[in-house]
């Protein structure tokens, strides 16, 4: 067992999950989990949904164009200018009729991409790759395992959707057989409802296939991103020397340190300020401490934040500019007050205790 593990490590077998950095790099290169079946399934579903809701307006638009053509356009004199006007008017009416369903299809494509990969736009992927024009490379792709999988998926999609559509038609075969006895409007309604029913049935089957394909694509993507133990070690060493990573780590450490320090401010007896540039939180417990202690300090934004927290917890704030500067410069967090500042800090603590009715506590 140990020998086999050593061999795997030595051979660089990719058995480990990809690191976050490897995933970010892959995303930048366009290596993402994406199934084209999701886009086609949602586009078909949204399109038939629009036909169900707005199909009446679409039919009315087509009939209006039909009537308008026979009432007005048939009487126009056939010239170059009239033909151009006729073409522009018909084109504009056609655009107005088809624009909603085109917008719905576009929205479906955008939504399908967003739910799979989120917001992503990489200009680097727009570069022209001459290698894709290589016929030998194209032949390799045609006879690859991926091409075989795509062929199987396409065949399954055609077979399953065909069976489902046939089943929908077969269920309503009796209505279709007597359609000749109905008038034109009723026949059109029957055909329209049947088409929408077939569309929703086909869309549902495609969504199931798209979900299965997405799971397969995710599995393949994770398999492709896997790393060997040596690659993880090399990446860790590289990231250790990366200035950006170091900067991020230091920023995170500063944030954690600041959060811990802010949690100490409510414990303070007094906050000595500059008043706006510096703030030093002093704590003194005469029963356990030989001298007052600095439990938090900050300048600029940190000082303002400390003042806000002190105000929220009714911690008295005393302004003493020289003392605040001296404490900030000479005393670190967790250290006691130096001897040369005892008297100044003691006077402030005595004032605070007197104001809060705790003067006897300090005297003891």
Automatic annotation (TrEMBL):
Transmembrane segments annotated in the record for this chain: 101-126, 147-170, 190-216
Compartments in which it is found: Cell membrane
Pfam family, one: Bac_export_2
Major localization class: membrane
Domain of life assignment: Bacteria
Entry's family note: Belongs to the type III secretion exporter family.
Protein name: Flagellar biosynthetic protein FlhB
